[in-house]
Every structure is written in C-alpha cells, then in structure tokens.
Amino acid sequence: MVTKTFQELIEEVHEKGICQECGGCVSFCSSAAYGIIDFKEPNSPPQYIRKDQCLECGICYHICPQTHILDNELNATYGFVDYISMPIGNYKDIYSCQATDEEFLKYGTDGGVVNSIINYLIEKKLIDGAIVSKTNAPFSREANFADSKYDLIKASGAKLDVSPQLDEIQKFSTYTHSIQKLNHYKFKKLAVVGTPCQIYTIRCMQDLGVTPSEHIEISLGLFCYENFLFDKNQIKKFEEDFNISFENIRKLNIKEDLIFKLKDDGTGEKKINIPFNQLENYMRPACRACDDFTNLYADISFGGLGSPDKYTTVLTRTDKGEEIFSKVINDGVIRASNLDESKKNKMIELITQFSRSKIERKEKFMKTLQ
C-alpha cells in the first residue's frame, strides 16, 4: 500500500476547500522540529515549507479530520455506531448546569461550567493547565494556555472594547487554533477545550501514539454548528445587514440562535438574536464539510443549546468524563438542575435537530464536490 503524504492532503483536502485548519498536521508532523509544513497565511490551510525534507510518513494524512482513515478505530473506542441510531453520539447522561463561583458564572459562556471544571482540575493538581480559547474581539479568538483562575477569567472575553483594534485586524475568525499550542508548553497532564474537528484530530493522535498526545488528560468538547470568518468587506456587510456595529458587541453566545449582547447608551446593554440560516454567507467554508455537532469523541461535551440562560448543557461520554463530572458536582463546584425524563428528552430532541441539520448540510455540500 502506498503511504499518502501531505501532498495528497493538499490535493484531496486543501484544494477542495475543506481543510478545517485544526493544525494537527503541523503540530504532529514527524519532522515538526524542522518546520516541514506550517501556516504561512492566517485563516488559510498549512503549506509545505521544506518539502524536500518531508519524511513522507503519512501521519498528517492519518490524523486529518477530513480523511476519516481512523473512523472505525475511534468509533470502537468511544462506542459510536452511526448517526441513525446515535444522532448525538454515545453518551452516559445529559445535564443542565451552572457554576457556583460567581466570577465564572458572570464572565463565562452560558453557565461558566467549562472553566469551573478546568479550575477544579488545576486546583486538585489533576492537570497542569489547559489550552482554552481567548476572545480578542468579536469573531476573533486565539488559543491560550491557562493554569490559574486568573488566566481562565482573562480568557473569557468578558470585557470587550475592540474599537482600537478594528483597523488592525484584517480577518476575524471564531475558529481557535488550539492544537498548535500543544507543542509550545512542557507539561505532563493537560486539558484541551476544542471543536469537533480538533478533538477528532487529538483522538487520532492518541490512537497512533503520536507525542505529546499521551499528555492530554481530558478532552472537553464544544458543540459546534459552524464557525465564522470575516474580512473587512464582510464586516461592513454584516453591520449593514443586521444593524450591528462591531464596536458595540460585548459578548457572543450560541443557543438556538447566535446571540449578541451589545452596548447600549440608553439601557447599558441590549440583546439581539440572529438565526443561523441568516449567517450562511459568513460561515467558514470548511465547516460545510463537517457533520459532528455534539463532539462525539470528547470526554465531556458542552453547549448552550437546550439549557436556559446562564446554564450549560453537558453530555458526559467516557468513564473519565463521568468521573470528573461527578467530582465537581459532589464538591459543589457546579450545580445541576433537577431534570426529569421529560425535560431530558426535550433537550435531546432539540440537540438532535441541530445535529441532523448539520449532517444533512454536509451531505448536500459533499455532493457539490463530486
């Protein structure tokens, strides 16, 4: 069998416009220390830098979330059969929760649960730190290493005053390049917060035993319907379409719609909801080639969908995820709503609708590439 290399990734993934830019191929290249491949341009697929030095080992091709080489192995490990019988994946239980810490609840997304769990793991010395997403501006995030409560609060993007930055930023993207950060820190145990394509890549690395994936202690997955990408012309169009100024955006949140919290001189803050079907022109093109909404291979999955304001929906998936979640509940770090079977079923039904919508979107999109 001929080993497929980064050149095949370029032809089969990049040139089709379906590269998720997760960074797995760059970070876990066998010759990463020599800079064989890298991101040369922001919000664009990685490229060869020193093609003549490529070992052609095929790791990059195997771990790419668009090649699906290791799907059978991952599905067996994480108990996933198919979307027909498991539209939101294999999971142990569903919860609606919020942080008991007032700062995490105030500054965090939804119920502040993800940061609360990470902070607990750090304080208990179960991890050395975490790769999280830091908000720099509306629709602009970067990966950050956090090993304290201060770092987690700082990364939450609670106070957003971006007017001085608007002229400097050429492109805004909600997608965070988290995986590249893994090689930047020396650690023994790390938590990673990521989108479905990022967690998929990490699980592929772990399946292949690619260093340093063995040091990832827990994978915390975010629900992800789509990410957004704006250049300056799109920013102008977005502001005109929705009568929203980027300068006034204080916070973004995702539930059934994309929710904006805006500065308002009269009342201090106002809220605007925009349905996803009105945002297709601003979606990252590669997101159309993804069918995983609920983060199938995470230890625990999180999202706002299905829970009321200031609450986070939680799906525990693995034994490790269930164990950690039980600890934070029992130690009073987060509180869970009392959900009867009827409420759980309604949450699952709503999440299933979004999951099936994303699956159908991918099926339609992939037919256009044939």
What do these coordinates show?
This protein has 370 residues and is of the alpha+beta class. It is 31% helix and 21% strand. The chain starts with 5 loop residues before the first helix and ends with a helix.
List the quaternary state of the chains. Answer: single chain
Query: Biggest β-sheet, characterized?
Result: 8 strands, mixed
Strand order of the largest sheet: 5-4-7-8-13-14-3-15
Global mean pLDDT: 85
Number of helices: 11
Structural class by SSE content: alpha+beta
Computed over alpha carbons, the radius of gyration is 20 Å
Strand content: 15-25%
Silhouette:
globular
Organism: marine sediment metagenome
Protein name: 4Fe-4S ferredoxin-type domain-containing protein
GO molecular function: oxidoreductase activity, acting on CH or CH2 groups, with an iron-sulfur protein as acceptor
Pfam families: Fer4_9, FrhB_FdhB_C, FrhB_FdhB_N
